[in-house]
Amino acid sequence: MANNDAVHTETFVYTVTAMLLTGGDARAATLAALAGTCAIALTACSSSGPRAEPAPGAPSASSPSLSSPAQAGPAASSAASASTSAGAPTPGRSTPAASAPGSPSASSSAPLPSPTGTWKPPARRAANGPTAPPPVPTRKAALDNPVSFTTDVTVSLVSVQATSVTAATPGEVSGPAVRVTVRVDNRSKKAIDVSSAVVSLAADKDGYGIGTTAGKPSPLQGSVAPGSTTSGSYVFMLNPAKARPVTISVNYAAGEPIAIFTGRTA
């Protein structure tokens, strides 16, 4: 459609030009030049297609807002210079990112206070209470002598007899053994509980008597009233057992003194 219009326009222009030139005067030549100029303009408009309409509110090419500062005058140039110096972005130059609202800047943050004083390590605390249990009082005697304590309790060995036992229940062992009978006399004014009594036997040559339930032992147990006496028996596996040097320790109650007897078995 645009090409057809251009053809018709050129044909019309050429026709008018030919008619005017036949007049042979100067005005005809002027009109011919004007007609040629119009033809060129119409041809350009026809070949460029329909003109696009600007969006509503968009500034046109002739709008004063698009004028350069030189065309707008001194006032526009001053305003442009002021906007540039006020922080407007310049082409080719990066703009620093704005700080988030409420975030402290380097210039607004207060300097940290300088440390004062001298650090000292804490004082070493003293130990709370004893680090080792106090030694338990002990007294030594021969196998046939009693041992008396300041607690008004006397411990003695009634007999230390070599014997032989036979296993009767699982875990027991048959063989030579030593039977020890212990006696406790309570001369104090209060009852004492001997259920926690501990009796042990050690022999020469690093021998050690092993307690056993074979041979029907009957350990100390129960409470001993003031002025009363109780006895208990213990059996220890020991090979050999007859005429063997032994050391027997008797602790008649937990936390109380220990009686240590030494001698030979019968």
Structure, explained:
- With 266 residues, the protein is an alpha+beta fold.
- Among the domains are: 2-47; 138-264, Immunoglobulin-like (Sandwich).
- It contains 4 helices and 11 strands, in the order ααααβββββββββββ.
- It has helices at residues 2-21, 26-47, 69-72, 74-85, and strands at residues 138-142, 147-148, 153-165, 175-186, 192-193, 198-203, 210-211, 223-224, 229-237, 245-251, 258-264.
- The strands form 3 sheets. The chain has a 5-stranded antiparallel β-sheet with strand order 2-3-4-9-7, with no helix packed on it.
- A hairpin with a 6-residue loop joins strand 10 (245-251) and strand 11.
- Helix 1 runs antiparallel to helix 2 (26-47).
- Residues 61-88 have low confidence and may be disordered.
Core attributes:
alpha+beta; five-stranded antiparallel sheet; 266 residues; elongated
Topology:
Elements: H1 2-21, H2 26-47, H3 69-72, H4 74-85, E1 138-142, E2 147-148, E3 153-165, E4 175-186, E5 192-193, E6 198-203, E7 210-211, E8 223-224, E9 229-237, E10 245-251, E11 258-264
Parallel strand pairs: 1-11
Antiparallel strand pairs: 2-3, 3-4, 4-9, 5-8, 6-10, 7-9, 10-11
Helix pairs in contact: 1-2
